[in-house]
Amino acid sequence: MELYVHIPFCKRKCRYCSFVSFTEKAAEHEAYINLLLKEAELRAEEADEKITTIYLGGGTPSLLSSRLLEKLIRGLNSIFNLDSVSEFTSEANPGTVTEDWLEKAAELGVNRISFGMQASQDSLLCILGRIHRQDEVFHSMELARQAGFKNINLDLIFGIPTQTEDDWTQTLLTALSLHPEHISAYGLIPEEGTPLFNDLRMNRLQLPDADMERNMYSKAVSLLHSYGLQRYEISNFARPGCECMHNIGYWTQVPYIGIGISAASMTGFRSLPDGISYSRSTNPCSWADYRSMILGKKLPVPEVISPKEARFESVMLGFRMADGINEDTFMRMHKVSLEDCYGEKLHKYCENGLIIQEGHHWRMSERGFDIQNTILSDLMDDSFN
Ligand code: SF4
User: Fold this and answer.
1) Which of the chain's termini has less CB crowding within 10 Å, N or C?
2) 249 lines ligand 1 (CB under 6 A)
């Protein structure tokens, strides 16, 4: 089982960001930590398995003071049994992270840091509305290594307006020069309602075209591979043994408890005659609603995921992974074979070279990854008709 903790504070809102985070609540950090710990108490009985990974995401967890970070982690430790945690990640932003914070995080058991580097050109960081500049990434990496972190991720973005293929190659090379154990490379998705989306709609900025974006993605796959970072999920690359266990858990339907504003939980797994079923719930996204829910000692009403939906989720998430879906694991989990559920279409995609079957694994080919959404919606039709 996994634990996710949402820290919804940011110094300034990035221009593309649609995550739930607030810039004006610095005075309320401690009140929020108190609410998180209250929620953890309310959810304690959902932790019916050992917790193996923790992820502090956001927002910007590195905006919390060291004292509040300590209060949070010690509090979680007193509520949940965290003895089996082997991976404990915190996101951190260059431009907010300090030596003191990193040392405290390491002392409290955080053993993996994920930095939002995004790009190596200050002009692109400006377009994204990031608060940091490239030299702060170098400095933050150095501080993290000095604090003893041996597992560091850098998040990168491609497909940024005005970004050229050379810019992207330079970003990849700069990131690689810092020797991270893990890199996440995401294509920019302009979310409606963000300032960047409005600039695009008003033609003040343009996105790179689809071909250029595809080239950028291919460049990431080949360059990172040549430096020893293997793609293990469509957007994630790692040195062997440094894959993010928390995210792998998510893609393989390991139960998780999420606490904090907007956090989702997936718990209550049950084995039924026709497969598995579980519950999913999402906390409110507004501060006021979250606060009143927790103070009222309530939790959101969960949605029950049926065996049929659970099967499709396995396919949707499994095909994101480079290894794809193991048919034995699928059978064990869902009590029906992958072939019986999706065989006809899977074989058709195999013939077209979009899906590859190797031994007991079914995975997307390079061309399949390119049109993954189309393939998944086609498979979804089979699931729900
Ligand atoms: S740092 Fe992350 S969460 Fe905060 S505004 Fe930027 S993208 Fe959003």
Assistant:
1) C
2) no
User: Which residues of the chain does CATH 3.20.20.70 include?
Assistant: 2-249
Question: Between the CA of residue 269 and those of 248, 284, 306, 333, what are the distances in Å?
Answer: 18, 23, 11, 11
Q: Is 123 helix (H, G, I), strand (E, B) or coil?
A: helix
CA 65 to the chain's CA centroid:
23
CA separation for the pair 227, 222 (Å, rounded): 9
Cα–Cα distance between 133 and 85 in angstroms, integer? 34
Residue 262: C-alpha distances to residues 253, 323, 373 (Å): 19, 30, 25
Fold entry, domain 2-249: TIM Barrel (3.20.20)
Per-state percent for the chain, helix, strand, coil, to nearest 5: 45, 20, 35
Ligand 1 atom with least separation from CA of 10: 4
Q: Convert the pLDDT of each residue in 21-39 to its tens digit.
A: 999 887 899 999 999 999 9
CB 76 within 8 A of CB 117: no
Residue 123: is its pLDDT beyond 60?
yes
